[in-house]
Amino acid sequence: MSIIKQLGHQAKEASFDLLSLSTLEKNNFLLQLADDLLSNSDVIMQENEKDMAQAKNHDISKIMLDRLLLTKERIRAIVEGVKKVADLEDPIGQVIKGYTNLDGLKIVQKRVPLGVIAMIFESRPNVTIDAFSLAFKTNNAIILRGGKDALNTNKALVKVVRASLKSSGITEDAIQLLEDPSHALAEELMSATDYIDVLIPRGGAKLIQTVKEKAKVPVIETGIGNVHIYIDETADLDMATQIVINAKTQRPSVCNAAESLVIHEAVAERFIPQLEEAISAVHPVAFRADPVVINLFKEATLASQEDYGMEYLDYIMSVKMVSSLDQAISWINTYSSHHSEAIITQSLAAAERFQEQIDAAAVYVNASTRFTDGFVFGLGAEIGISTQKIHARGPMGLEALTSSKFYINGNGQIRN
Questions:
Q1: What is the dihedral sign for C-alpha 289, 292, 297, 298?
Q2: Which keywords accompany this UniProt record (predicted)?
């Protein structure tokens, strides 16, 4: 039996065992897991140090190293996320609707687990615990395949979770880690239709595209973030400056960081020098501007066509000047990854039209796009941010990891 078939079989069996867990049992376990993660934080960080050392030898960028790094503070944040999931209302068993049909059948639609979730993600160790806690709270088993740069950290985290499960009398196979990072096994996991109910990829454009092309199991796409901020002609430019600085520089390595700036021509001459001076005091940003607006910068390079659709995950930003709100909306919808987009404006009409016509999972008015996050939205941790138009869109919390089932009760009815 191949490793994928073994993991899949064990996960499928675990998913049936997990169906019997009550809300109280799940919550008590998550609180115990939070304590166990905290008490094992030194061991987890020791393993993370091994990954950090190896990543530096692989010439990983400083921004990507920051995504990989675990500190006491970050482990505490992970622990708080687990506790938050325990506090959330349990969606499993919730009645979506109930009615009696013309045949006298009593029909109730309830939320139920998806079953077995597989997740392929890059080197962000917090995802390991976020994904498990959400899957467990919704009675799902999960198979994780993380990036090779975080292998030691992920093994340590999963070891703690499995030990906690065992000590609580719950099947350890509620969580499993594919430790071999080979592409061949990842592709086999993508094709495990006998075992996997849904696959969630979380990472960069290359990973997402590979999964879309090769997966045979159902996929929930958590897309990249080519995030735009549009500075409208009525914008408060001081507000706009602070929002752009926050959205671009506060943590550039995440998917809700701003990558593209769109500016109305009426304010470009005033806004660009103000932004350039203010943002350089926080962190230098390399602007890649269109031919019309480039001369308004002290330092900028000419943008290529590829720049406008790029998720940089770095201190780089494309810039486009437009002459109208309609042009801004058209431009953003053309290059958007459908993640998060924002308008800075004092016009209620412009704000409403922007929010209605922009095709994205989250559309902001006068706020930083950095808020697109399951925890911030009150969903607890998140398993990813869906950019698809399926049952899950935007930050994916507990409800996104459920399906539904119809329960039908009769008293002898037959269909004529």
A1: positive
A2: Amino-acid biosynthesis, Cytoplasm, NADP, Oxidoreductase, Proline biosynthesis
pTM beyond 0.70, yes or no: yes
pLDDT at 302 over 80: yes
- Fold (topology level) of 228-371: Aldehyde Dehydrogenase; Chain A, domain 2 (3.40.309)
**Domain residue limits, the chain:** 3-221+388-409, 228-371
For all residues of the chain together, what is the average pLDDT?
Answer: 94
Rounded (5°) CA angle 181-72-251: 70
Residues across the chain:
416
What superfamily does domain 3-221+388-409 belong to in CATH?
Aldehyde Dehydrogenase; Chain A, domain 1 (3.40.605.10)
Instruction: Report how far residue 3's alpha carbon sits from residue 99's, in angstroms, rounded to the nearest whole number.
Output: 45
Cβ neighbours of 349 (radius 10 Å)? 10
User: Rounded CA gap, 258 and 342, in Å?
Assistant: 9
142 with 199: CB under 8 angstroms?
Answer: no
Of residues 343, 308, 329, 321, the one with CA closest to residue 265 = 321
- Alpha-carbon dihedral of residues 183, 186, 187, 191, nearest 10 degrees? 170
**Could you give phi then psi for residue 167, rounded to 5 degrees?**
-70, -20
SS3 397: coil
Rounded CA separation 265/272 (Å): 11
Least confident stretch, 114-118, 119-123, 201-205, 286-290: 201-205
